[in-house]
Amino acid sequence: MVGLGALLMVMSLGTVVYARTLLNAVEDSIENRDLLGDGEMDDGDIEGPLNLLVLGNDHRENNKDGDKVGRTDTILIMHINKNLDSAALLSFPRDLLVDVPNCGPNYNWQSCQTKLNDAYPSTAEPSGRIEDGVQNLAASLTNLTGLPRFNGAAMVKFDGFADLVDVFGSVELCLPFDMEVVHSKNEDLPLGPNGRRLYPKGCNEYSKNDALGIVRERYAYGPETPGWTEEWGISDFGRQRMQQHFIKQLLKRAQQEGYMSDPTKVGPLIEEIGKNIMLDIGGRTVTNYAVALRNVDIGSMLTLKVPSEPADINGTSYVVTQPGEQEAAAAELYEALQNDTIDQWAAKYPQWVNTGD
After folding, report:
1. Nearest CA to 138 among 95, 81, 92?
2. What are the tens digits of pLDDT across the range 212-255?
């Protein structure tokens, strides 16, 4: 979104000097860091396929617990095909049981099997360095998927990213059932059976606070909720799907309201996104990526989930890829990421594709 805005400014505004000033402002608005730790700098052409690591961080300023690095409960890989004209968004369950190469001081800095979202804080917290956590999480995903490396990474302050809703005024979210939302403080809504604010089934416009509450919700997804179906998944699986839906709806709203075609609207969009994201794109500029990815069709973006299911292991709740059909489907998924055959995988395993979003 930042890149497209920057490209629009350059194409739409007359003088080279003014365009360069705007480009510099765009680049300055994004915090560039070597999140992946490979120090790779490449100013050549961007060629597909690409696999980008996207992390949603819950760190908030003045956190009462003194948390300086936050958590990464939202973990995604964005795959962009060889032709740079289509994309797929793959969500990983935060509780997925994986091999983590560095489990921190409690494990003498050795490897262990644990939840995927433990990989980030186990190294980021002791050092206080976000980069250490991202690299440990990236290495965990490399172990799992077989991807030799990521082409880039982004750390998004997810709560802050919801500020984009304020830029647009609201965002349309489509709820699959009447949903009780734990984090809602909207007193205009009725209370549900569990004493939480009840949001109606269907598509409605929501403000930032309502949207963020809906996107953070996970307890509503389960058989105890009237209208819930297995298609939406239990707990974090449902939340993953709603997060994917939220991201796509933001992108659609940006297009619908001219934020990607009207140069007078682009400034506020870039400013709002820029303050909530850290990027590692191998030394390239945001506008390099804007040019390379200008043909990606947002409307046809696939939203996928990892073949797996919740499991209780010795009293601890995990998500596990079970032997048999799930294990086979997951293995083919990871091969598809490497071989750029995601479309074929999605056609073969429609049960692991989030549709209707």
Report:
1. 92
2. 899 989 999 999 999 999 888 888 889 888 988 888 888 888 87
pLDDT tens string 199-209: 999 999 999 99
CA 240 – CA 173 distance, rounded (Å)? 14
Provide CATH code, domain 33-163+276-352. 3.30.420.590
**Per-domain residue ranges for the chain?**
33-163+276-352
For residue 60, count other CB atoms closer than 10 A to its CB: 12
The pair phi, psi for residue 50, each rounded to 5°, is: -125, 145
Q: What is the pLDDT of residue 277?
A: 84
| Residue 344 near residue 336, CB atoms below 8 Å | yes
The dihedrals phi and psi of 102, each to the nearest 5 degrees, come to -135, 105
What is residue 302's three-state secondary structure? Answer: strand
236 φ, ψ to 5°?
-65, -25
- Measured CA to CA, the distance from residue 210 to residue 220 in angstroms comes to 15
Complete DSSP assignment for 51-80: EEEEEEE---TT-TT--SS----EEEEEEE
| Lowest-pLDDT choice from 13-17, 185-189, 307-311 | 13-17
How far is it, in rounded angstroms, from Cα 65 to Cα 62? 8
* Pick from 142, 165, 202: nearest CA to 276: 165
